[in-house]
């Protein structure tokens, strides 16, 4: 997992609410256990026509999407079934943070474990972001702040452990492995054995 401290980027805006994980990456693309290449399947049913050709009017197919690393989505983003492929597809496409007024709990957890920053903001901030697509914003993971171009700063919630993992580029297993020596010493010192 890459270290994530700051995400500075223009925003992509998909204002629809209740975007579920099957819309983010349809189930037919879940046959792989590798992350590479899943960005091509991101929003596949919205991005491509029945012949598999890109729809020129869909946001991710337009030139203004190039280089954008922050997605602003409608309320209740990532609802539906649990699939790590959803944050994998976003990351492989180049999205490093998702901003909404509500992000589904399971999607949020999968995102944090894979290096995608879920940013939950108030309705006023969200409304401004929806109305200003392509805005240059900064997501500061260490400070839990979203900085807007007009100078406003908004805080967002993220637990300390997830923040630590993002900033240090480790997942839960990596965190445990970093403490392997201390775990071994503890297990060796205990009086009972399993």
Concise summary:
With 194 residues, the chain is of the alpha/beta class. Helices cover 32% and strands 16% of the residues. It is built from 8 helices and 7 strands.
SSE arrangement:
Elements: E1 6-14, H1 21-24, H2 44-47, E2 70-73, H3 85-93, E3 97-100, H4 105-114, E4 117-120, H5 123-131, E5 136-140, E6 145-147, E7 153-155, H6 160-168, H7 172-178, H8 180-189
Parallel strand pairs: 1-2, 2-3, 3-4
Antiparallel strand pairs: 1-5, 5-6, 6-7
Q: Into how many domains do the coordinates divide?
A: 1
| Content of β-strand | 15-25%
Q: How many strands appear in the DSSP assignment? A: 7
Contiguous helical run count:
8
Approximate shape: globular
Report low-confidence residues grouped into runs of 5 or more. none
What is the element string, with H for helices and E for strands?
A: EHHEHEHEHEEEHHH
Rg computed from alpha carbons, rounded to a whole number of angstroms? 18 Å
Lateral strand order in the biggest sheet: 4-3-2-1-5-6-7
């Amino acid at each position: 997992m890459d270290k994530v401290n700051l995400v500075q980027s223009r925003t992509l805006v998909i204002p629809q609410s209740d975007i579920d994980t099957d819309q983010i990456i349809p189930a037919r693309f879940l046959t792989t256990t590798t992350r590479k290449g899943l960005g091509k399947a991101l929003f596949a049913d919205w991005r491509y026509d029945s012949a598999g050709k890109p729809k020129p009017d869909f946001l991710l197919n337009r030139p203004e999407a190039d280089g954008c690393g922050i997605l602003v989505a409608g309320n209740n983003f990532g609802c539906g079934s649990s699939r790590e492929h959803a944050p994998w597809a976003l990351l492989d496409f180049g999205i490093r943070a998702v901003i909404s007024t509500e992000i589904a709990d399971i999607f949020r957890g999968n995102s944090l474990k894979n290096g995608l920053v879920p940013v939950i903001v108030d309705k006023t901030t969200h409304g401004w972001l929806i109305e200003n697509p392509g805005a240059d914003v900064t997501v500061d993971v260490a400070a839990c702040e979203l900085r807007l171009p007009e100078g406003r700063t908004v805080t967002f919630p993220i637990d300390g452990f997830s923040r630590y993992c993002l900033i240090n580029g480790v997942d839960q297993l990596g965190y445990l492995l970093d403490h392997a020596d201390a775990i071994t010493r503890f297990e060796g010192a205990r009086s009972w054995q399993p």
